[in-house]
Design a protein that fits this description.
The chain is of the alpha+beta class. The chain has 4 helices and 11 strands. The protein has a single domain, classed as Sandwich (Immunoglobulin-like).
């Protein structure tokens, strides 16, 4: 019995030593393996910018969001006289979906610059969220007001920090491409309405 175990073990070792690798198939000794590290350049799709101009409306809405992230974006209203409409004259809105805000822990207030809290807004409702094709904004959103001067002074990027009651703060970063595309479109709508 012992001799069969020894013989079986010796056979298994000899077969395993001469066999091909179990994983990866046959390797060719003549071709060295070369690993080339590709440069990691992530090209983001340009932001989506929509102008919503309804014939009987007193305002024209401008909305912008990242192509792959519609639950966070910017919104502004321009009157037919060519002025920005907002809580304080010239405010834009950073909107977020209620579920995203809930998932992140909610917020009691938000800041973009130390010592300057942003004004919160109630729930925004957008019945025309999918009216302009397949790229839809949220039907309901929660927002904070961003003064025009603040958005224009942070054209590189803007970090808005949301501070919930009793939890860790969380932040949303608005990329420079989004801010630039949004402000360019807002300025063109303002110029066209004047």
């Amino acid at each position: 019995m012992k001799s069969l175990r020894v013989l079986g073990t010796a056979f298994a070792v000899s077969v395993a030593g001469c066999s091909l690798p179990l994983f990866g198939g046959r390797t060719s000794p003549g071709k060295p393996t070369v690993h080339v590290a590709a440069a990691e350049t992530v090209t983001a799709a340009p932001p989506v910018v929509q102008v919503r101009d309804f014939r009987n409306s007193s305002v024209v809405s401008v909305l912008a969001w990242e192509a792959d992230e519609a639950r966070i974006g910017l919104r502004s209203e321009v009157s037919r006289k060519g002025t920005l409409v907002g809580g304080r004259l010239g405010d834009h809105v950073l909107y977020l979906t209620p579920f995203y805000v809930w998932y992140m822990g909610g917020f009691a207030h938000a800041i973009a610059e130390p010592g300057k809290p942003l004004r919160g807004m109630g729930t925004l409702t957008d019945p025309y969220n999918c009216f302009y094709g397949s790229r839809c904004t949220p039907m309901t959103a929660i927002g904070v007001r961003l003064p025009d001067a603040l958005l224009r002074s942070h054209r590189d990027s803007l970090v808005v920090t949301f501070i919930p009651g009793g939890r860790d703060a969380w932040a949303v970063t608005l990329r420079r491409e989004l801010i630039a595309a949004f402000l360019t479109k807002v300025d063109s709508v303002v110029a066209e309405m004047r």
